[in-house]
Design a protein that fits this description.
The chain is α+β, with helices and mostly antiparallel strands and about 700 residues long. An 8-stranded mixed β-sheet has the order 7-8-9-10-14-13-12-11, with no helix packed on it. Strands 2-29-28-27 form a 4-stranded antiparallel β-sheet. The longest helix is centred in the middle third of the chain and has 20 residues. The radius of gyration is 31 Å and the shape is elongated. It starts with a strand and ends with a strand.
């Protein structure tokens, strides 16, 4: 069995800084000098003292002339201004400016060449001499200079213009345009030289790499460039390449791209400048403010503790795992809970996660959370007037900190609670999965007695009402259906036949395991063999991509786990394992750690443990559901059968923060930062992976 040691890995983190003094438009450059970060615009110069999670403004000043660009110069900056070259440095806590050279025309850019500074006006190149700039060469007609590069190795002067890219030599100008070279587009926005001496060129059709003589490499689809509208390029100390775009930041590291887009990572998506830091991160100036993108060493256990703190702080509603709605985007101080459609499902998942945690660690906090969640889950059966019928959710009457979701709400007999009916099979899946894992791994005798009682009451209700959930109106609920006459003989239920057969067989097997009542085993075998439910399981996964429902995958795996864990009859197992194998073949590409670990635990076969751990590591620390839009990306190929989805999963740090019932291929998602995920979707596969030995602590 493949095992992955839970060692520290680089966890992506974003610190954002929004401040009225920081310029939001007209920004020319941000530059890092030691622990200082300079932000230069045409109307303001700001210097900040920065650390990983702080940015403190030390000084700001109006430059003596509009600044068009800047370059580092020791512990200060050299500035290309409308009236010449200035030098800026921090003296006594204040920004001081000194004039270095006068110019009759605005200077657009400048760069150091050996011991001198060369500069660019819109129509010529010049060099700085004592007190003035001295023209060197005119640009050809109809070309306007945009960016200047003095090659640090060859001393060649390169100019990026609106109509190509030129090199000035003793023979004169040598120009390259998209028509006769590897330049993807004539408008050149930035030029940088990497450690190999190659020139990287930023254009609106992507970056290209040039050796300065006869070889070009335009970045395109073959290297899965996510986006092509590039404005700036910077290099980090560990081989990183940072690209600024109008859709965020692209980072090339270890041969792969990362995309930092949207409010999870940046206060604005239009990137004006990037300043790499010595540790491999970067400060990014956007139209919405400043952000520090960096990574910190973290183990998965440390991430689990972090996410547990999030759940305890904002998602613990009297023991239920509850949705959290924010009053302002990303403001975690003011929130309300939502009594949702599936509080029983989410609480059952969390109960199982903490039960695995208790089995692995024997930590008292885990035991406390197990008992708290177990009693909250059990109460969903007690609050309704029908024995064995569980509510979707419940809330105290008049509770201002919780909001009722839509649906059927009823008043409890004692008048103290409101509970939500029309309960679905999702809820029963959550109850039986949570009860089964808790009973086996974490329950003491008092807990086991409670679980036996609840499992029996729920299963008896289902059996007595001919395998449906019957609500207070005497009618079956919309989705609580496992009846043979419907699943096997009503064509409307054809697509649910396999999944619902799997669910009821799993629930009956759990009921027999926990209570020991032979009646459940007899009914289980009757459904499995005489009603053909064991055969129904084989095609439980709907293979037609047009009808794939991702929350059904979660329901299936939560039912597979106890069914195959508790069933030892080889005749039945051959059908169940055939079903699991078929389902795994279709969902394997999801890179879902819950699917992987359940499959591996039940079969003993390789289950892509490394991919599962990679997904867990890529899940962001920020559980706020910021809006994401990946429709601009060229590296995510659209799914021809499912509009709005890609053919491969969007990386976890670049998609909406959703549970495993969510769609990992969806290109758009999020709630604009108005909700926060509880994180139990991470805790369950992590602690399950620890318990089954896939992850070594």
């Amino acid at each position: 069995m493949v095992k992955v040691k839970d060692v520290a890995y680089p966890q992506d983190v974003a610190f954002q800084f929004r401040h009225d003094e920081l310029p939001g438009s007209g920004i020319r450059r941000i530059i890092r000098t030691g622990d200082l970060l300079w932000v230069i615009s045409n109307g303001k110069a700001v210097v900040l003292s920065v650390g990983s999670e702080r940015a403190e403004i030390l000084s700001s000043a109006d430059p003596p002339s509009p600044i068009n660009n800047a370059r580092p110069d020791g512990d200060g900056l050299m500035l290309a201004a409308d009236d010449g070259i200035w030098r800026a440095e921090l003296r006594g806590g204040e920004i001081a400016f000194e004039k270095a050279a006068d110019s009759e025309e605005p200077l657009i850019d400048l760069d150091r060449r050996g011991d001198e500074w060369v500069c660019l006006a819109s129509s010529y190149i010049a060099r700085a001499v004592v007190g003035r700039v001295e023209p060197i060469a005119e640009l050809p007609p109809f070309k306007t200079g945009r960016v200047l590069l003095a090659h640090p190795e060859t001393g060649e002067i390169w100019v990026g213009a609106d109509r190509g890219m030129g090199k000035l030599s003793v023979e004169g100008w040598e120009w390259h345009t998209y028509a006769g070279s590897g330049l993807p587009r004539n408008e050149v926005r930035d030029l940088k030289v990497d450690g190999m001496g190659f020139i990287w060129v930023a254009t609106g059709e992507g970056p290209t790499v040039f050796n300065g003589r006869d070889w070009w490499y335009p970045f395109g689809p073959e290297v899965k460039l996510p986006y092509e509208n590039i404005f700036c390029i910077e290099f980090g100390p560990k081989g990183e390449v940072w690209l600024g775009t109008d859709k965020g930041v692209l980072k090339l590291i270890d041969g792969s791209w990362k995309v930092y887009s949207g409010r999870r990572w940046l206060p604005g998506d239009r990137v004006f400048g990037i300043a790499p830091d010595p540790e491999g991160g970067a400060w990014v100036m956007t139209d919405g403010g400043l952000a520090h993108l960096y990574s910190k060493p973290m183990t998965l256990r440390e991430k689990a503790d972090h996410i547990e703190r999030i759940r305890a702080a904002r998602h613990n509603r009297e023991g239920w795992v509850s949705h959290c709605e924010l009053k302002e985007p990303g403001n975690l101080e003011e929130f309300v809970h939502e009594a949702s459609d599936n509080d029983g499902l989410w609480t059952g998942i969390y109960l199982a996660a903490e039960s695995f945690r208790w089995a692995v660690t024997k930590e008292e906090e885990a035991k406390r959370y197990v008992k708290q969640s177990l009693r909250a889950l059990a109460f969903l059966e007690e609050v309704t007037p029908i024995p064995g019928f569980v509510a979707r959710s419940a809330r105290r009457v008049g509770d201002e900190r919780s909001r009722k979701s839509g649906g059927e709400w009823h008043l409890s007999d004692d008048g103290k609670w409101e509970w939500k009916g029309d309960t679905s099979s999702d809820e029963i899946d959550g109850h039986f999965f949570g009860y089964a894992v808790c009973y086996e791994l974490a329950a003491d005798e008092e807990d086991r007695k409670l679980i036996r009682e609840k499992v029996a009451r729920i299963m008896d209700h289902i059996i007595e009402h001919d395998f449906v959930l019957q609500d207070v109106d005497g009618e079956r609920t919309q989705w609580g259906v496992w009846r043979p006459s419907l699943l096997n003989r009503d064509e409307w239920w054809r697509w649910n036949r396999g999944l619902n057969s799997l669910e009821i067989l799993s629930h009956l097997k759990v009921a027999y395991r926990i209570t020991g009542d032979e009646r459940y085993e007899r009914i289980y075998r009757h459904l499995a063999l005489e009603e053909g439910y064991a055969l129904n399981l084989i095609e439980q996964y709907i293979a037609d991509p047009r009808f794939n429902v991702y929350h059904d995958n979660q329901l299936a795996f939560l039912a597979y786990y106890p069914l195959l864990l508790f069933e030892d009859d080889p005749e039945l197992r051959k059908f169940y394992l055939l079903s699991l194998e078929r389902t795994w073949r279709y969902v394997r590409k999801d890179r879902c750690p819950l699917w992987n670990f359940i499959y591996g635990a039940l079969t003993g076969k390789p289950c892509d443990v490394e991919e599962a751990v990679k997904t867990l590591r890529e899940i962001p620390l920020d559980m706020v559901r910021w809006s994401v839009d990946n429709t601009f990306r060229r590296d995510l190929i659209p799914n021809p059968y499912r509009p709005g989805e890609s053919l491969e999963p969007v990386p976890p740090g670049e998609r909406d923060v959703v549970n495993w019932d969510g769609n990992p291929y969806k290109l758009r998602g999020g709630t604009g930062g108005m909700t926060e995920n509880d994180g139990a979707f991470f805790l369950l596969p992590y602690w399950m992976g620890r318990y089954h030995g896939f992850i070594e602590g």
